[in-house]
What we know:
The chain is 28% helix and 29% strand.
Amino acid sequence: MRDHAKTIFLPDAAATRSLGVRLGRLLPAESTLLLEGDLGSGKTTLVQGIGEGLGIQEAIDSPTFTLINEYLDGRVPLYHFDLYRLDATAAAALYPETYWNGTEVKPGIVAIEWSERLRYKPSSYLAIQLTYTAQASRQACLRAIGQDNLRDVMRTL
């Protein structure tokens, strides 16, 4: 399994959203993003940018209480999970593999916030760790695991 990494410095929330827009324009269907980071680190802002890059017109909010939001009107569908309030057993009960395998839904982009709560991961994914830096800005550490097309996306960022 191949593992390729890149760190991108993000001076503000607008830069985080802009990174998301670029990802939304570049990511192919059947891409899974595993997002990690503290509260307020920019996970939802990044997903909002992805939605914008996909051409989704609907407002994208954190699905903390609904757990999964589906946005079907973009270039490809966006499936947005938020596992913040769940433990590993409850996260597994959502059957996220049906989304990243496209077995019961149209293949799209799966973005999972608080992905460290997953018991298992797909064979191919883009891990995105969002953190604060000492200068009160953010950075995104991206790591492509598996498919070459994710590595190709990272090269163009």
